[in-house]
Amino acid sequence: MGSQPSTDSSGPLPERAVKTAVPPHGEPFHQGEWDKFVKYSKLKSIGVQQYYLGKQRVSSALSDAECEQLLLELLADGVSVGAIALPDPYKVEDFEIKLITNKGWLRNAKLSVKGKPKLHSEVNYSGCLDENASMANKRVIDVLHRLSLGLNAILILANK
To answer: Does 142 score more than 80 pLDDT?
Structure first.
């Protein structure tokens, strides 16, 4: 997880997620845990760009590096709060995200295990990083779910 974003006129943003939990076996995504994190951290109206990049709703397109950082930090928080299952011995740091396409509504990223390019999955993140997407936005939740399914697919490949 990255550094805490800057503050605005409404005061500092809530502290980043610190809880470590794994949803029940067999469930790669547990939306209730994300919803609790957003609610109790008072992040419902905070934009994903503001929270992860310290930017106030930027209408221009994010760079590929910014998109990759945001997606990786979103994944890290999803795992940290227990919304995304990541079994031992894996850690979020074992994974990387590289953009494949970042044009219009066609936005895909490759989620892979570092140093093992054959262990990868493609994840669509369309709409999630838009300047108006808040931490509680359905598109953000959809991308968290897709990231969890991507991780699950990679873990199945790893165990073959």
So the answer is: yes
6 domain residue, yes or no: no
Determine the structural domain holding residue 113 and report its residue range.
31-158
Contacts 24+ apart (CB under 8 A), 91-96: 95/151, 95/154, 96/72
Confirm whether 18 is domain-assigned. no
Residue 8 pLDDT greater than 80, yes or no: no
Amino acid (1-letter code) at residue 5:
P
Residue 11 lies in a domain: no
Residue labelled with tokens 């890290």: 76
Domain membership flag for residue 71: yes
Global pTM value: 0.80
Q: Is 46 helix (H, G, I), strand (E, B) or coil?
A: coil
Exposure letters 1-22 (e unless 16+ CB within 10 A, then b): beeebeeeeeeebeebbeeeee
Q: For the chain, what is the total number of helices (H) and then of strands (E)?
A: 4, 3
